[in-house]
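NitT/TauT family transport system permease protein
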Amino acid sequence: MTIVTERPGTPAVSKPRALRISWVRAAPWLYTIGLFLIWELLVIALQMPQTILPAPSRIFQAIVQYWSPIWKNSLQTLFTTTLGFGLAVVGGLAIGLFIGWSKTIYAGLYPLMIGFNAIPKVAVVPILVIWFGIGTIPAVITAFLISFFPIVVNVATGLATIEPETEDVLRALGARKIDIMLKVGVPRSMPYFFGSLKIAITLAFVGSVLSETVAANYGLGNMMSSAQSQFNVPLVFAGLLMLAVEGIAMYALMAWIERRMTGWAHRSTMAH
């Protein structure tokens, strides 16, 4: 087998594996370009009106044409989403540690958390408008409410599923409850916690746009709602495309943080 050495001090990588890695890295771009090409051809072949389904080329034209409002509203949505997500990280981690501290607390509060999460957040937005008015605050709170549950569940699960044998051994060695949680429970829950961030950030965007559509004067949700009322469908799809870009970027950031912070938990998969 031919071996290619990249530089001194780094592991040698075989040509087939290097080629495979290159294809894996290029796959998202190739699939995205392919999707847009198929979309464009289908719209042309079916002669689809742009008020029903605009072609990607028309959507990109709308992005260029309305770039200033799209950029401003994108920043607003990113701000509300990031702020709500940040609150969800802090609150979800704290509540998850509290619920996972004791199996009794876990059994008592977990059903309440499920019941709260089952409430459609669109039904909560009007209440937030009554309390805080129309604007940024309802969007931030909605992003928080819809994204903190996965963080709570994953952290609490990581703590509550410590093996009884492990606890018995540590107690026999003189460890206290807080020692077990800090030295075993918290490190054990960290892969769950950082993994949940990827889910929570996408849900935070859903919450922000939901609130912006109903109760805001700015943001991509408000922009798309206004464009819809004017039958400006290309602008609606432009807003959706910007949301997709922001969501992918934030998801990639969370995935990078997960790899950096919990790479030790994924060493078996990273070796392949």
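thats it. The first helix runs from residue 15 to 46. Residues 1-6, 268-272 have pLDDT under 50 and may be disordered. bye
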